[in-house]
Design a protein that fits this description.
Elements: E1 9-10, E2 13-14, H1 17-34, H2 38-51
Antiparallel strand pairs: 1-2
Pfam families: PknG_TPR
Organism: Streptomyces daliensis
Protein name: Protein kinase G tetratricopeptide repeat containing domain-containing protein
Length: about 55
């Protein structure tokens, strides 16, 4: 079973905010590569960017 603090995974991503954001970003980028039109591709990339986890330099 899962230990304390472990929430499991969903489609290969940890079930926490960061893991789900990475998973959504990855999924939107995959869909963008498969998009039929440039407009659709741009919208999907913009969605991926919105879900991308915040990183600090």
């Amino acid at each position: 079973g899962a230990g304390a603090g472990q929430l499991g995974t969903l489609l290969g991503s940890p079930l926490d905010e960061e893991g789900l954001r990475f998973g959504l970003e990855r999924s939107y980028r995959l869909l963008a590569r498969l998009a039929q039109s440039g407009t659709e591709r741009i919208e999907l990339v913009e969605r991926a960017n919105r879900f991308r986890p915040r990183t600090w330099v």
